[in-house]
Amino acid sequence: MAPATAGPVWPEQSPARAPAPDKASASPYRAAPPAPAATDVTHIFPSFSKRRAQDAREGVAAFNYSVNAYALRALGALRDGGVAPVVAAAATGGPIPNVRRAAAAALARLDVPDVGGVWATLRGVAAEAQGDWSVRYAAVAAMEEFGVRGVGAGKEGGGGKERDAALGVLRDLAGGGGTGGPVDAVAARAQLALLALEGAEA
Q1: CA distance 119 to 116
Q2: Exposed, middle or buried, 114 (CB in 10 Å: 0-12/13-18/19+)?
Q3: Which of 83, 174, 195, 201 has the most CB atoms within 10 Å of its CB?
Q4: How far apart are CA 165 and CA 72, in angstroms?
Q5: pTM for this one?
Q6: Rounded CA separation 87/101 (Å)
Q7: Mind spelling out the 3-state secondary structure of 98-166?
Q8: How does pLDDT run across 121-151, given as a tens digit for each residue?
């Protein structure tokens, strides 16, 4: 009877094909390979993107918080503005901070027609006086991304009054440091966001 094998050996695992690792590649401290660049696949593979968006929407409603957060990040990568209400609801009322942080970041990346609505949602989350500081921090970072690289960028179509109101919230947060602890982290992040947003308008 033939001896039992441990399983298939794929070509890339074959000793005849794989070169012996040198000391640098064998080190557990070697640098990780660069992450692949984010790509908007919506216009390249429309049907693929629609399927993935549907899967991600279902993931947002799953009874697993890690799946919720992962699905929200996927929706942000797909940039489909049609899911903005779902993402905004998760940003304002998600079950745990991790889900709310993922939703805030995703909201900034969507191609939405209602730019003012995104500004209003993010500034509301950032301004929650009793809110989790990490969620507020994420909302501040999302406002910067939305206003510099997202569809909220620029003076034209940038959200008008809602954008101005968001900048006002950032100014209030930026001046609220000096008390120590997480509040200072939010204040420092708001200062950086203001520099980026005001520089983008110049």
Answers
A1: 5
A2: middle
A3: 83
A4: 26
A5: 0.72
A6: 11
A7: HHHHHHHHHHCCCECCCHHHHHHHHHHHHCCCCCCHHHHHHHHHHHHHHHHCCCCCCCCCCCCHHHHHH
A8: 999 999 998 899 999 999 999 999 999 988 8
Structural contact between residues 143 and 123, judged by C-beta atoms closer than 8 angstroms: yes
Q: How far apart are CA 107 and CA 102, in angstroms?
A: 9
- Joined together, the tokens standing for residue 82 give 């049609």
Distance CA 95, CA 101 (A): 11
Q: Specify the higher pLDDT residue, 161 or 105.
A: 105
Element containing residue 7 per DSSP (H, E): none
Within 13 Å, how many C-alpha atoms sit on residue 10's CB side? Answer: 2
- Assess contact for 106 and 121: CB atoms under 8 A: no
The SS3 call for residue 80 is strand
Q: Under a CB-based contact definition with an 8 Å cutoff, are residues 146 and 119 in contact?
A: yes
pLDDT at 156: 54
d(CA 143, CA 167) in angstroms, rounded, equals: 9
> Can you tell me the distance from the alpha carbon of 136 to that of 182, in angstroms, rounded to the nearest whole number?
10
Q: 80 - beta bridge partners? A: 111
